[in-house]
Amino acid sequence: MRTPLCDTLGIDVPIIGFTPSEHVAAAISRAGGLGVLGCVRFNDADELDKVLGWMDANTDGRPYGVDVVMPSKIPTEGSSVDLAELIPDGHKAFVERTLAQLGVPELPDGTDERAGVLGWLHSVARSHVEVALRHPIALIANALGSPPVDVIAQAHERGVPVAALAGKAEHAVRHVDNGVDFVVAQGYEAGGHTGEIASMVLLPEIVDAVGERAPVLAAGGIGSGRQAAAALALGAAGVWTGSIWLATREYLETMPDSEPMQQALVAASSSDTVRTRIYTGKPARLLRTRWTEAWAAPDAPEPLPMPLQNLLVSHAHNRIHAAADPSVVSMPVGQIVGRLNEVRAVADVVADLVGGFEAAVDRVAGIRRA
Amino acid sequence: MRTPLCDTLGIDVPIIGFTPSEHVAAAISRAGGLGVLGCVRFNDADELDKVLGWMDANTDGRPYGVDVVMPSKIPTEGSSVDLAELIPDGHKAFVERTLAQLGVPELPDGTDERAGVLGWLHSVARSHVEVALRHPIALIANALGSPPVDVIAQAHERGVPVAALAGKAEHAVRHVDNGVDFVVAQGYEAGGHTGEIASMVLLPEIVDAVGERAPVLAAGGIGSGRQAAAALALGAAGVWTGSIWLATREYLETMPDSEPMQQALVAASSSDTVRTRIYTGKPARLLRTRWTEAWAAPDAPEPLPMPLQNLLVSHAHNRIHAAADPSVVSMPVGQIVGRLNEVRAVADVVADLVGGFEAAVDRVAGIRRA
Lengths: 370, 370
Fold this sequence. Notes:
The structure is a homodimer.
Chain A: H1 4-9, E1 15-19, H2 22-30, E2 34-38, H3 45-58, E3 64-68, H4 80-84, H5 89-101, H6 122-132, E4 139-142, H7 149-157, E5 162-166, H8 169-177, E6 182-186, E7 192-193, H9 199-210, E8 216-219, H10 225-233, E9 238-241, H11 249-254, H12 259-267, E10 273-276, E11 284-287, H13 290-296, H14 308-323, H15 346-369
Helix pairs in contact in A: 2-3, 3-6, 5-14, 8-9, 10-15
């Protein structure tokens, strides 16, 4: 299972795994893929620096990447205190009322709370890039499309290629025009920020639109070797996976209190997701739980624009996480969640993707010959 | 490009083509696939009988099928006059007002108007089945899932297999439990009635859920050989295509006044569809035009349940069709519409699907060996 992308990135199999967990990212890289660490959880660049130091020591010299969240248009900036003044009281009251109705308790006094908003700020994302470029990273990906051209230039100066997510062919072309090296074609079925065009249609459209100018990675709906084979048949140079790494044992090493979330994922079917603006202000696919249902009710307010919506719900996310109730989870995940039926080791997931790919290709090659 | 389905159905390539045009259906069958004629346009069973007689004479002895629209739960029955009384005046006024705003003229006096509702009635769909079974059909497909078990038994008595569309794995299992022979896995990206799970996720889920009990056909997003290869890699026994046949020369032989519709399809991108209840009362993907946009406006009423919504809009559809304005089309089509860039001959479309499939499989087989 080798494509030219393997040589470009120095990996064995064209499987890119996005995850907020350094333990998962390192395990993906050690298994021959490319682990990509999501940086949005790091409000403090020094904390990211330490974690990337850990990655350097735990990837056996295999390549890894980082993922930042940088809107192409710079949104409202400011400290979380300034921004909080822009949030309507009605929205705050709805969140408080909803948490009470869902039985989500207050945090204990003295809890050291993360301010969930900061990673979504442009300045913080820039500090992530600066810190990451001090480490031997193999890729910088931006979840919200093309980063500003000076950020791309900064990465290229250090010899680091840049990937950008795209949900439409015209966006993919714009990214490549801006100097982006890889396009991640993110289909409707994907978790997190996503558009409306499904992978089956989007992927070959983007492959044709960018042509020889950039390899395209398939994101959205990839959780098995059959799906990897389908993605490569559609013209992808590799697969970009995310949701499947949430249900791994290594995830618990980074976030040991994530068992209720994993239980909720394992129980969910492919119908149990919803595409909504309640997580960040932009449409993102989340696990459907009592929390997302409350926001879909007729009395719920419209979500706020990025970055205000994440600021509005970040305290709620902390309370929801602490409540440890699988029925009230707030977690981005794709429709592939229906395939997550147990918590597994990262190396087993990689091995299954490769084995399933080989079996699927052998099957279609038999149909080709028949 | 042969699967066991080819032997079961007596076809050369596992490409099933759904179309309301007998000229297209016959051309698909002559090209080695299975043309499936949509029956919903026939209010009068005798008219269907005549058209199937034409099919018998124009398919060179190659197999063909029919597609009926039969909800598993029998909806409101009655003549169009009875049913019309159930339509709120506010809905009628909205339609009239909207047509005026869109510049869609009244029909000329004396126009012989089709009552568009009848094909959606259960009794009419039953008459379609009875007429079709007098012809040497190779398949009866039901666009709305499992037909009643007595209809399945009636088909089986004549040796005719039954296919049913499914948008969820649990529905597919229920269809097979009812005696359905083939499942059509209809992904979110498909035109017409469709669910929310995209093909990349839905198809392997349905393949695994029904196992050896029934072959699964992939519907939704299939318009090129690469997509056919992806579908077969995901476990499909064949592909079910619909939208791509709307932009064929043969379509104009059946419906010569469809050039404005074809112009609209050729101009559309994959972003130019919308999943809405305005066509039949159930969610269906349509071309996004000024007509669908009017129904998405804040002042638009909620669509009525099936079969009332189609009765409400059937006169509007006739006026829209006669207006011949590509910006006000009412046409079910999938996201693959972005690929329809010219009007082609059916045989060329089939040849491209087969050639593209072969090239895609050769490419992934190379990746497998590398």
